[in-house]
Amino acid sequence: MKIAIPSMGKDLKSSISRKLGRAPFIIIYNSVSGEYDSIENPGFKIQDGSGQKSTEIILQNNIDVLLVEEIGRKAYSVLQKEHIKIQLSNSGGTIKSAINKFLKKM
C-alpha cells in the first residue's frame, strides 16, 4: 500500500503539515517495502491552486491512502472520484508516528 502524507520536511522524522496544499513536501511511504520518497510540493510556492498541485502528485504516484489533517473541497472531491482513501487525522507529530498509528489500526 502506498501512503501519502503532507510534510514539513524531507524525511520520516519531519512534522506533519496541517494542510495538504501548503505542505512543503509530500512523503510517499510504501508499507510493503518500508521505503519512502520525498517530493517537493510545487503548490507550496503558489498563491492559488495549491491543493490541485498536491493532488496531481498523489495521482501521479498511484497513492492508496492520504493521511491528512486538512484538505480543501476541490482536492477532496478529485481524490474521492479516483477512489483514494482519505484518512483525516489531527494527531500531529512526525510522519513516522502517523504511519505507525495508521498501520496499527488496519
Share in helix: 25-40%
Strand-residue proportion: 15-25%
Assembly type:
single chain
Distance between the termini: 12 Å
- The biggest beta sheet, please? 5 strands, mixed
Task: Please tell me about this protein's structure.
With 106 residues, this protein is α/β, with parallel strands linked by helices. It has a single domain, classed as Nucleotidyltransferase, domain 5. It is built from three helices and five strands. It has helices at 50-60, 73-81, 95-105; strands spanning 2-7, 25-30, 36-40, 65-68, 85-88. The chain has a five-stranded mixed sheet, sandwiched between helices. α1 packs parallel to α2 (73-81). The protein is globular, with a radius of gyration of 12 Å.
Summarize the structure.
The chain is an alpha/beta fold and 106 residues long. 29% of the residues lie in helices and 24% in strands. The protein has one domain: 2-Layer Sandwich (Nucleotidyltransferase, domain 5).
